[in-house]
Amino acid sequence: MTTELKAEPLYLKIKNHILDRIDSGEWMTTMRVPSENQLVKEFSVSRMTTNRALRELTNEGYLIRVAGVGTFVAELKAQSNPLEIHNIADEIRSRHHVYSADVLKCEAIKVNDKIAAYMNIDVDVTLVHSLIIHKEQGIPIQLEDRLVNEDVVPGYGDQDFTKKTPYEYLIKQAPLQKVEHVVKAIMPTGSTKSLLDMSDNEACLLIERRTWTKGRVASTAKLYHPGSRYELSGLFKPE
Q1: Closest by alpha carbon to 165, among 115, 102, 212, 218?
Q2: pLDDT tens, position by position, 68-112
């Protein structure tokens, strides 16, 4: 699959430069980062551009700006969440069961205004839409409806997801920095009910997930599960 390459915005180039050094450990917590003036000289950009990059990284929790002193790497705080992200294939195999997948769709699509806003992209950006049924012992337990930004996760649309799961590819290409979960109980549409081999009056557990990498939305997914065949459980200790 070929997509038209676009020049990376200058402010985003600066953001990624800073995030790469934080991710690699080169810039440690509380370390002072280069000033606006230093970044202006290094990247040959305007102060407005460097200010936007630093402001967005501050708003996203990666930096702390102290007036009259400088900008520093923020302390990242772990958050307890009963919903963790796992590879569904590993979950199934841990029960000594056979995992398999049916790939119904994996293709490039144009997006509407609503999706563009949710993914925080321009409407002319092409995404990859994948639709996959994950099975345990040949029985459907999850319908994964996913959108991926290949500007953040290159090569996603070229993968064979009968041999590896989207999780396995995404976790290597776009390490998680932030995850949003929304869990709902819904009545499925006729097509979802058919794909998951559900009974007529069976409810569906829906997990809506959005993930970020280097301050950008890498992927969004709607994960549908038959209510009779899937449950969520978690343990956390309140502080």
Answers
A1: 102
A2: 788 988 865 433 334 567 889 998 888 788 899 999 999 999 989
Question: Could you tell me the two tokens for 230?
Answer: 């899937």
DSSP state of 158: G
CA angle 219–173–31, rounded 5-degree value? 95
The angle formed by the CA atoms of residues 30, 32 and 37, to the nearest 5 degrees, is: 155
| Fold exhibited by the domain 10-73 | Arc Repressor Mutant, subunit A (1.10.10)
* 88-226: CATH topology: Chorismate lyase (3.40.1410)
Residue 225, SS3 per DSSP: strand
Instruction: Show contacts of 41-50: CB within 8 Å, 24+ apart.
Output: 43/10, 43/13, 43/14, 43/17, 45/10, 45/11, 45/14, 49/10, 49/11, 49/14, 50/11, 50/14
Q: First-to-last CA distance in the chain?
A: 48
| Three-state SS at 226 | strand
Q: Which residues does residue 128 pair with via DSSP β-bridges, in sequence order?
A: 108, 148
What pLDDT does residue 145 have? 98
How far apart, in whole angstroms, are the C-alpha atoms of residue 223 and residue 232? 12
